[in-house]
Amino acid sequence: MMVVPGPASTELGKLVAAELKAKVVPVEFKRFPDGESRIRFEGDVKGEDVVVVQTTGPPQNENLVQLFLLADTARDLGAKSITAVVPYFAYARQDKRFRPGECFSAKTIVTLLRTCGVGKIVTVNSHNPALLKTLSVPVEDLSAIGLLAEYFRKRGFEGAFSLSMGKKGLDTAVEARKVLGGDCDYVPTQRDVVTGNVTLGKKPLAVKGEVAIVFDDIVSSGGTMMKAVAYVKEQGAKHVYSACVHPLLTDEVREKILKAGAEEVVGTDTVPNVVSNVSVAPLIVKALKKRVGPVCG
Ligand code: R5P
């Protein structure tokens, strides 16, 4: 097996290769003055099971095009199989035609990956794993919630109160509780499907005097996390921490979450960021050790 770390996941790709004891095929990357990407494999992948590691966080469109270029080039160079490790899967939130005539983005991305020769996709906490699994390439969706909870447990937060967003998201808090012990519940967040605005319902949380950790899959504008952290503080929690798998946030957003009452904002390296204190490499390695996919198309 050979690992090709894409320009958006160079560090994570190298970590995965090191843990797998697999050869790394470096990629030379150049951005032309007009913004177009050019990649070049600095090694031979002919006849090999190739694992391309490339996240598709911001700038999503550029990172996606690079992923397509990496996969299609690996196929042209004679790779035996191509597995795309896409730690953050962009466009997964557009997982159906919400309105007539609208694009079904998640399907389009998977179709393009298949066309570029990808036989298997490995991703982490994608927005709608059940939907991804019905598309034209086998998708394995991994969860990094346990790793985030483990990060806090190792720092002495055993017994902390685990919280997640909205009733539908309660599974996330339950998953974290399996590692942390303590109680779990959900913050009553609701998203308006038309405006996208997040509001809070009225739901008492038994967090008085507790150390509480609020988990979410994504922090982007930070609106949801800020409201949740402030609510948990209002409910009497002594200390509140914010944890997310995909930190799409800017430093300014991190500051706002801290101002809302969080003592720390923690994310993983699915999207390399100043808060990426937890690596998903062990999860990905475990999944890759199972098998790699055939070349499609
Ligand atoms: C929603 O489905 C996700 O789980 C996150 O809560 C959401 O993407 C966070 O977005 P923002 O940080 O912009 O509020």
- Radius of gyration, taken over Cα atoms and rounded to an integer in Å: 20 Å
Strand segment tally? 16
Q: For the report, how would you describe the main beta sheet?
A: 6 strands, parallel
Q: Tell me the CATH topology of the largest domain.
A: Rossmann fold
- Count of domain modules: 2
Query: How many angstroms does the end-to-end distance come to?
Result: 20 Å
Low-confidence runs of at least 5 consecutive residues: none
CATH class of the largest domain: Alpha Beta
**Shape verdict:** globular
Portion of residues within helices:
25-40%
Order of helices and strands: EHEEEEHEHEHEHEHEEEEHEHEEH
Description:
The protein has 297 residues and is of the alpha/beta class. The chain has two domains: 2-143 and 280-292, 3-Layer(aba) Sandwich (Rossmann fold); 145-278, Rossmann fold (3-Layer(aba) Sandwich). It is built from nine helices and 16 strands. The strands form four sheets. The protein has a six-stranded parallel beta sheet, with helices on both faces. Strands 10-9-13-14-15-16 form a six-stranded parallel beta sheet, with helices on both faces. Strands 3-4 form a two-stranded antiparallel sheet. The model has no long low-confidence stretch (mean pLDDT 95). Ribose-5-phosphate binds at residues 165, 198, 216-225.
